[in-house]
TrEMBL record:
The chain crosses the membrane at residues 530-561. SUPFAM superfamilies: Cadherin-like (SSF49313). It is found in: Cell membrane. GO terms for biological process: adherens junction organization; calcium-dependent cell-cell adhesion via plasma membrane cell adhesion molecules; cell migration; cell morphogenesis; cell-cell adhesion mediated by cadherin; cell-cell junction assembly; homophilic cell adhesion via plasma membrane adhesion molecules. This is Cadherin-12. It is a single-pass type I membrane protein. Its main location: membrane. It comes from the Eukaryota. InterPro entries: Cadherin, Cadherin-like_dom, Cadherin-like_sf, Cadherin_CS, Cadherin_Y-type_LIR, Catenin-bd_sf. SMART domains: CA (SM00112). GO terms for molecular function: beta-catenin binding; cadherin binding; calcium ion binding. The gene is Cdh12. Cadherins are calcium-dependent cell adhesion proteins. They preferentially interact with themselves in a homophilic manner in connecting cells; cadherins may thus contribute to the sorting of heterogeneous cell types.
Amino acid sequence: KLHSDLDKGVGTVKYTLSGDGAGTVFTIDETTGDIHAIRSLDREEKPFYTLRAQAVDVDTKKPLEPESEFIIKVQDINDNEPKFLDGPYVASVPEMSPVGAYVLQVKATDADDPTYGNSARVVYSILQGQPYFSIDPKTGVIRTALPNMDREVKEQYQVLIQAKDMGGQLGGLAGTTTVNITLTDVNDNPPRFPKSIFHLKVPESSRVGSAIGRIRAVDPDFGKNAAIEYNIVPGDGGNLFEITTDENTQEGVIKLKKPLDFETKKAYTFKVEASNLHLDHRFHSVGPFKDTATVRINVLDMDEPPVFSKPVYTMEVYEDTPVGTIIGAVTAQDLDAGSSSVRYFIDWKNDGNSYFTIDATEGTIATNELLDRESTAQYNFSIIASKVSNPLLTSKVNVIINVLDVNEFPPEISVPYETSVCENAKPGQVIQTITAVDKDLSPAGQRFSFRLSPEASNKPNFTVHDYRNNTAGIETRRHGYSRRQQELHLLPVVIEDSSYPVQSSTNTMTIRVCRCDADGTILSCNVEAIFLPVGLSTGALIAILLCVVILLVIVVLYVALRRQKKKDTLMTSKEDIRDNVIHYDDEGGGEEDTQAFDIGALRNPKVIEDNKIRRDIKPDTLRFPRQRPPAEDNTDIRDFINQRLHENDVDPAAPPYDSLATYAYEGNGSVAESLSSIDSLTTEADQDYDYLSDWGPRFKILADMFGEEESYNPDKVT
């Protein structure tokens, strides 16, 4: 209720209300100022409302007092029960846990005001699940209430929990939830065989490694706590079998380690032990976590194929053994109670060549063809044995026949058959190490011996030194060798083997004499001897040889052309400006031939004085020019010749020869001698080729060639 001191009760004051819920939740009587709630209030929805009230004059609408603010609080009542927001719950606890073992904590929430009365004070209790579990009434912690709860007896528990407000008093509101509790497994039970003895029947034809039976020990535990390991206790027949664990079924799988034979032994007895892999030390007091059972295996008789006395037969025979020679035999027996005869035959599917035959009854193997060890050193084939009473029962065995060697081939020297020796070699120098090869199969310890043949023993050039390790060295026996005297030496070497009968052969080695430097490096030898150590192929050697030959031919042709030039016919046209120079196709008359032109004006006293001879032809005999008195110098002719010489020297298109060579010589006995302005004293004979000797051994042949030509040059006057 609102009231203003200015309100005299005559209706002149009007009350107004504004703020939270004004007009919707709360209303005010404008005349009396009474405030009423027009709908139900919920504290959990809105615990308080803030409102503003004012008194105004009815006539003037003006406030009589300042606006005042007030708060309306909603008083709580216990209208909300506790709720488990996370329920239902799932929990687990190990089996055999002690009393008071922690399981889970639950929590209920009450929406009422915890500060006003006991509306929000919650108390927990168990409605279902006793006497196995208990709960703390204040905290809601669930714990075990009984000791040694066994998972194998009961695994799942459902517990009903109640939460009640008002401190659990009468009239309080309550909420419930469910807790599903599972006992987890621990290894508290040992494995146990359901019976003390297991009987198994196994055919004697069972394959090694195959499973012949299963046994199982029972363990009520779960998961890894129920994992069982099986072992065979050493005893009667236990070494013929082995046992493993099937991971899926935890069964013991018995497998065969060795073949069974009914005729040898009909029954086996042994013990099997089953134990847990993962032990829990808390339960050792229960007893040993293992159990033992007896396994008895009865072997069943089966109709079996024949059995060979050996798994593999190995035989030997000499090559070239006559056809029909027996080299060995195989044996197979029927070990069943009613013994049957056996027949033998060769498995031709594996051996297409019938080099051998076998006696069907006796099993003897004989040659069917002549054998050659050099062609095939070993034969490998199969022999099949079958029972006469049941041909379908067969067995197979491998037969290996080694062909022994007969010493029929003499040893031979291995490559190379040719070697070289330096001209400056010294006595005792090893120029080549040789080895031997033998086509025969060399047995262990076979040795080869080397020596000179009797006809070569008297020659002191070379000797053979046997190193007694299947190698020998070719050694020199004198100081130096001359290529000019003998370029090739043939050395017969006798090689013997140590087999019986002894075989020997005489092998001829070719020794080539080569020129070497002081270090023994070959400088000059045949192409093969020089380049073979480098590793060049035959094609490369031939190509190099051809290049050398072509180069030598070019050099010889060039020298021959320079030494044997003939006089070239250069200008024959009558319209040439040099027509005033007489051109002779043959030897002219000399100075007496003066009818065509007065050549007295062309005389060159310098050429006459130098005693020059013709350079365009090779004269047959050496002539000395006659001494003539110097002619008068003609300036016009000299200027003309110098001008033409200059034009030809600077002209890049001019021919590569002296354009004045047409009148360089006017014939034997000419008064004017040569008119050429070149006046070079250099001739082919004037060249000095001694420098070629300084270029090394590769140019020695050219130096010798030109040196000999120089010494026999007819143009050179001594």
